[in-house]
Amino acid sequence: MKTDDLISALTETLAPVPRYAALLWLVEGIGAGALVSFVAMWTWLGVRPDLATAMTTSAGWMKFGYTLALALFAFWATERLARPSASARAAIAGAIAVFAVLFAFASMKLMMAPPAARMPMIMGSSAQVCPWRIVILSLPIFAGTFWSLRKLAPTRLALAGGVAGFASGALGAWVYAFHCDESAAPFLLVFYTFGIAIVGAAGSLIAGRVLRW
Q1: Which of 183, 60, 75 is nearest to 120 (CA)?
Q2: Residue ranges of the domains in the chain?
Q3: pLDDT at residue 193 tops 90
Q4: How far apart are CA 101 and CA 110, in angstroms?
């Protein structure tokens, strides 16, 4: 068979990919992972009993807002990086801006607090377990996100994997926030972000093997 005939035979069965296929695949994987993560949180740790009251406070909104905003920007960046030529700069800049806002607010809180109160504000009462619980709750979302990415066409594998992991960690942290009773901005800045960063680093490390075409 001639080359032209072979190309024609291979392309006859091709169909156009829907415009929003990448987004739909990511939503499918992320949604399934988030559902498993939430059920795991509910059965393993439980929802904090005073959640309704906590959600009426600015600290409660800050915690849920920080994690969810990071997740949204990071998943936006993931969707962009799933395309060979798309730019994720705006989405990554948005995630950095969210972190910068919390960093500024936490720094202000620490400067205003008495010296003896600063370390308790950073460490809280669950510093030893918080990041690792975030990592564990992020695993179903991580798996769902990478399942979706394998169906797409990322070319910058380490970056795409790192951003996807970071997004999974942020959404896992949002799920964990339904259980966690910590609300101090310095604690969130250090230990929530640390847990999220661990998942991001894991994504970057395995991307070369998992996402290779």
Answers
A1: 183
A2: 24-210
A3: yes
A4: 14
